[in-house]
């Protein structure tokens, strides 16, 4: 409540400070009524107007979206996108899509921030957080005893493309990667104060306590879950991982933890698909036994999994387990590499983008509709833009249009 009232105060003062900018009567972009209480609302180069009442309603009810251009700077020093499927164009094109479709105007833009090292250490070791969370500039301010010296150099290797990285996927830019990785975490934490969608990179679900891998440095969703539980006293959190790869880092973080139910749907192929973990019999340990669910698809691409399999898994396993768990909030590792358009080595499945909207709608039935999605993997630009659009439409309560025939049939049965 305090957070809301602080934001409300700052927004109201912002509205009034902008009143002088309202020249004549402008139509509100939401209710279309001509109003002198209009505010310039900038999204990129677009200027739109929103009336005071819609603005307040929007603030009280709207879904949040969070994005920061700092995350574009994380890129391989070779500068060649073709070598690296996880590149800045991914979030840039999603952001443009949200602007072009007008969805951005229907959401509240949440301001991102860099996560603190303390927040990162909710999940990661101190060494890991210093190694990937500091740039040469802020490293100088650290306690000399914590300085990493040669250790940091040894962990990065020279890649065939000429850049630097932990591996050829997980590239490192000494000046910008730390800032971008911390921004991705901070954006998800900020967004979790309400519902919404985080347009973030680098992704996080492969990052383990002390290991960066598979494009990931810090596990944004896992850190946010710990933050919500430890700092905001949220007792039960459901994490649903829709990425085609198993979220080994998230599973590791909560394997013995009964307060966080982790559910992942992923291509497994008896451990032959990256990262190799996520077997169905990995169910948690100690008090966490039963609180780790792996829907581990197997059988390769013959045939590839699609909407029917994903919807069936939701209907028969995920939703019943989630209802019984009765979470207070749902966090979604929204990887879109299961969407059609991804080559076999990085996906190969045929789930439609619209199906992801439908799955989001199912999750909104839980936790009084408290659902926060954060982008993970997916590199086919059309696929990830379509899927992001479908998920945000679902969050906004818009009908997910042009459902695929499969989804249509399945949702009728449901
Ligand atoms: Zn490179
Ligand atoms: Zn993935």
Automatic annotation (TrEMBL):
Query: Which superkingdom heads the taxonomic lineage of this protein's source?
Result: Eukaryota
Q: Where in the cell is it found?
A: Nucleus
Q: Which stretches make up the Histone deacetylase domain?
A: 84-395
Q: What class of enzyme is it?
A: hydrolase
Q: What GO MF terms are annotated? A: histone deacetylase activity, hydrolytic mechanism; metal ion binding
* Pfam families reported for this sequence: Hist_deacetyl
Picking any one GO biological process from the record gives: epigenetic regulation of gene expression
Belongs to which family? Answer: Belongs to the histone deacetylase family. HD type 2 subfamily.
List the transmembrane segments: 47-67
Q: Does the keyword Nucleus apply?
A: yes
Question: What EC number(s) are associated with this protein in UniProt?
Answer: 3.5.1.98
Chief location of this protein? nucleus
The protein's UniProt keywords, in alphabetical order, are:
Chromatin regulator, Hydrolase, Membrane, Metal-binding, Nucleus, Repressor, Transcription, Transcription regulation, Transmembrane, Transmembrane helix, Zinc
Q: What is this protein called?
A: histone deacetylase
The entry's cellular-component GO terms read:
histone deacetylase complex
InterPro entries, per this entry?
HDACs (IPR000286), His_deacetylse_dom (IPR023801), His_deacetylse_dom_sf (IPR037138), Ureohydrolase_dom_sf (IPR023696)
């Amino acid at each position: 409540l305090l957070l809301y009232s602080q934001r409300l105060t700052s927004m109201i003062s912002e509205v009034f400070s902008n009143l002088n900018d309202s020249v004549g009567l402008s139509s509100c972009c939401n209710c279309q009524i001509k109003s002198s209480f209009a505010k310039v609302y900038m999204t990129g180069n677009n200027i739109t107007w929103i009336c005071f009442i819609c603005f307040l309603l929007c603030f009280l009810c709207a879904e949040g979206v969070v994005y920061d251009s700092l995350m574009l700077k994380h890129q391989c020093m070779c500068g060649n996108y073709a070598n690296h499927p996880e590149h800045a164009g991914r979030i840039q094109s999603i952001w443009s899509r949200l602007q072009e479709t007008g969805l951005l105007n229907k959401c509240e833009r949440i301001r991102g921030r860099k996560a603190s090292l303390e927040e990162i250490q909710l999940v990661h070791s101190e060494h890991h957080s210093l190694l990937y969370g500091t740039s040469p500039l802020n490293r100088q301010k650290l306690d000399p005893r914590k300085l990493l010296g040669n250790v940091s150099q040894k962990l990065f290797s020279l890649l065939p493309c000429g850049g630097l990285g932990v591996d050829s996927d997980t590239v490192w830019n000494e000046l910008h990667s730390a800032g971008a990785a911390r921004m991705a975490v901070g954006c998800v934490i900020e967004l979790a104060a309400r519902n919404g969608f985080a347009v973030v990179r680098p992704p996080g679900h492969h990052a383990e306590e002390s290991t960066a891998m598979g494009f990931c440095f810090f596990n944004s969703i896992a850190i946010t879950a710990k933050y919500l539980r430890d700092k905001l006293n949220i007792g039960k959190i459901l994490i649903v991982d829709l990425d085609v790869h198993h979220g080994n880092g998230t599973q590791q973080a909560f394997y013995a933890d009964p307060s966080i139910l982790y559910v992942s749907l992923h291509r497994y192929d008896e451990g032959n698909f990256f990262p190799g973990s996520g077997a169905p019999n990995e169910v948690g340990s100690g008090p966490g036994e039963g609180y780790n669910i792996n829907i581990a698809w197997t059988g390769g691409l013959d045939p590839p999994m699609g909407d029917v399999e994903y919807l069936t898994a939701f209907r028969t396993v995920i939703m019943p387990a989630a209802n019984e768990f009765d979470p207070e909030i749902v966090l979604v590792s929204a990887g879109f590499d299961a969407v059609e358009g991804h080559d076999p080595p990085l996906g190969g499945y045929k789930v439609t983008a619209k199906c992801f909207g439908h799955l989001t709608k199912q999750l909104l039935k839980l936790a009084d509709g408290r659902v926060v999605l954060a982008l993970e993997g997916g590199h086919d630009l059309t696929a990830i833009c379509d899927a992001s659009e479908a998920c945000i439409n679902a969050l906004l309560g818009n009908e997910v249009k042009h459902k695929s025939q499969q989804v249509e049939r399945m949702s009728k049965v449901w």
